[in-house]
C-alpha cells in the first residue's frame, strides 16, 4: 500500500530534515561523503597544455590506483578538471563553481603563477584547502598569509638559485652572460632573482643580451643570431615547453651550444622531445629533485613503478608536472590521513583539514617534502650536466648535485630577491658533492 | 649618427638577413588571409588553424617518410603535399558548409563563426597530434649551414633560413601576381574581388570563384605552416600566435592587397629583427607599432584603396 506525499507533509519533512542538518552542523559532526571530490585546475588547451595534459593523465592514473586500494579514509576520490587556459577571470569563476556547485572537498591549483595568485585569495575567502601543485611564483607566500593554501613542491627561488650555484661551481671563470626568457611573469621574475644572486655571488659578470621573446614564439632565429654575435660565456634560459624545444633546435643547428654554456633550469620537461638534439655538457634542472634517473631515490621501487606505469599507459616518460601532480596527491592522502586520525576516525571539516596540512611531511618517490609554517613546501633540487646514457633515448643529468631545500629556499618572512642580494660566496662551500648518476 | 652606423653596421647586416627570413614566413601566411578577404570579404580567424594543421601534416608526413628509410630530400615533397592535402580536404567543406552561410552578414557574426571554427580545429589538432611538441627538422638539416662573415668571426645561418624561405616567398609572390593577372581564372578572381555584382552580371560564377579562392587560400596557409615546420616545434596554440601577426601584416598592407602583404611583411620582419638587436624590450610590440603608425596615416593600409560606402 502506498501513500501519495501531500504538499504539507513535504514541507514539514523538508523543514525537519533541515533542522536536523543544522543541528548536526552546530555540533561539528561531519558526515563521511560518498566520494571525495577534488577540483583540479590545469592547462587542458593552449601552449601550456604540454604540461597540463600529462599532469592530468598522471592524476587519472593515480586516482584509479587510490580507488582500487579503497580510496582515502574509505572514500573513493573523484577528480573535477577545469582548464586554466581561458585566463584568471574564467578560473576564478570555475573555482567558485567547484566549491559552491560541485561541493569539492579540496582544490589543486594550478600551473600558471597568475592562476595561483588568483586562487589563493579565494581559498581564504571560501575556506577551502587549496594545494598549489605546480606554480612557481615566490610572491604567494611572500606577500600574503593564506591559511588554506599549501604548495606541495618547490618554487622559483630554489629553482633559480640551485642552477646558479651549480654553474658557479662548474664554470667559475665565466665573465659574460646572456639571458633569453619568455616574456611573462616567470621569465621576468626568474631573471630578476638570478641577476640578484649572480651579482651577490660573482659581481662584475657582463650581461651582453637580455632577450624576452613573446610566450609561444615559433621562431628564434633572430635571437640565435644575436647570441652568436654576442658570444657570451653563458646563456641562461628558464623557458619551457615548445618554446624551449624550438629555441634549442635552432640553437643546436647553428652551433650555439659549441660557443656558450647553457643553463636551462626547466629543461627536464623538454628533453624527451629534443632527443639527441640537446647537446651534452650543459646545466639542466627539473624544478625539483624528481628526475626519472634520480641517483638516490628515497623509494626506488615506487619511483620505478610510477615511471613504468606511466610509460605503459601513455607511451612516454613522465615529465616534471606529472611528478608535481603525484606529489600533490601524496600530500592530499597524507593530509586527510592526519586529519582523520586527529579526529579519532571522523571525517574532517574544512578547517580541520587545513590545520592538518600545516607542518605536514609527506613522502614522494624521491624524497620527503615538509610544508613549512607559511604553507611553502620544502623540496630538494637536483641540477646536473646533460649527458646521454644507454638507459634513456634523450639527455639526462650526470654529475648531479642534490641541493637540500633549506639551503636554497628563501627563509620564512623574507622576500626572495632581497634574500638573494644578501647571499655570500661561502654558500658554495656548503654545496654537497656531485653524484656521477 | 655615422659613428653609430660604423659601430653597428655589421649587426644591422645580420638583422637584415634575419628579417628577410622572418618576413618570408609571415608573408606566406598573410598572403592567403589577404586573398581570402579580398574575394570572400570575411576575416577568417580559422586561417591560423589551417596554418597549424599544414605544419603538423608536413611534419607527420616527413617523419613517416624518414621512418620508412626515404632520404631527407623527400621531406621537401612532404611540405608541398601537406599544403595540397590540407587545402583540398579542409578548404571546400569549410567554405561550402560554414562560410557560405554567413556571406553578407554582419562582421561580428562572421568573426564569431570563424572563431568557433578555429576552436574546433584546435581541438582536432589535439585529438590527432596530442599536446607534446611535434617537430621534423630534416628539411632544414638536409641543407646544412652557411657561415656568414662577421668581422673576424663567422655566424652560421641555416641555408633553409637564408635561401629557401625568402626564395619560396618571392616565387609565391611572383606566381600569384602572374596567376591573378595573366590567367583567365586569375582575372575572374580579380573581377569578383573588384565588384562581385558586376562580375556576376557578366556571367561569372561567383559561387565557384569563392570556393576556388578559399581552397587556394587554405592551401597557402597550410603551405606557410609546412614551410615553418622544419624550423619550429608544433604545440597547441601555434595557430593563434600566427593569426594575430598575420592580421597585423594584412591590416598594414590593406585588406585584399597581395603585393602590399609582401611589403608589410618585410617592414614588420625587418622592424622586429632590428628591435631584437638594438631594443629587445620592443621586440613583441614592434609589429603592432608599425601597424598603428601606418593606420594612423593611411587608415586603409599602405596599399588599400578607400571604399565608398553604399547607403
TrEMBL record, chain A:
It comes from the Bacteria. SUPFAM superfamilies: Periplasmic binding protein-like I. InterPro entries: BCAA_transport (IPR051010), Leu-bd (IPR028081), Peripla_BP_I (IPR028082). One of its GO terms (biological process) is amino acid transport. Residues 36-377 form the Leucine-binding protein domain. It holds the Pfam family Peripla_BP_6. Gene3D superfamilies: 3.40.50.2300. Keywords: Amino-acid transport, Signal, Transport. Belongs to the leucine-binding protein family. This is ABC transporter substrate-binding protein. It comes from Siccirubricoccus deserti.
Automatic annotation (TrEMBL), chain B:
GO terms for biological process: amino acid transport. GO terms for molecular function: transmembrane transporter activity. It holds the Pfam family BPD_transp_2. It comes from the Bacteria. One of its GO terms (cellular component) is plasma membrane. Keywords: Amino-acid transport, Cell membrane, Membrane, Transmembrane, Transmembrane helix, Transport. It is a multi-pass membrane protein. It is found in: Cell membrane. The chain crosses the membrane at residues 20-43, 50-67, 73-90, 159-180, 209-228, 285-305. PANTHER family: ABC TRANSPORTER ATP-BINDING PROTEIN, BRANCHED-CHAIN AMINO ACID TRANSPORT SYSTEM PERMEASE PROTEIN LIVH. Belongs to the binding-protein-dependent transport system permease family. LivHM subfamily. This is Branched-chain amino acid ABC transporter permease. The lineage of its organism: Bacteria, Pseudomonadati, Pseudomonadota, Alphaproteobacteria, Acetobacterales.
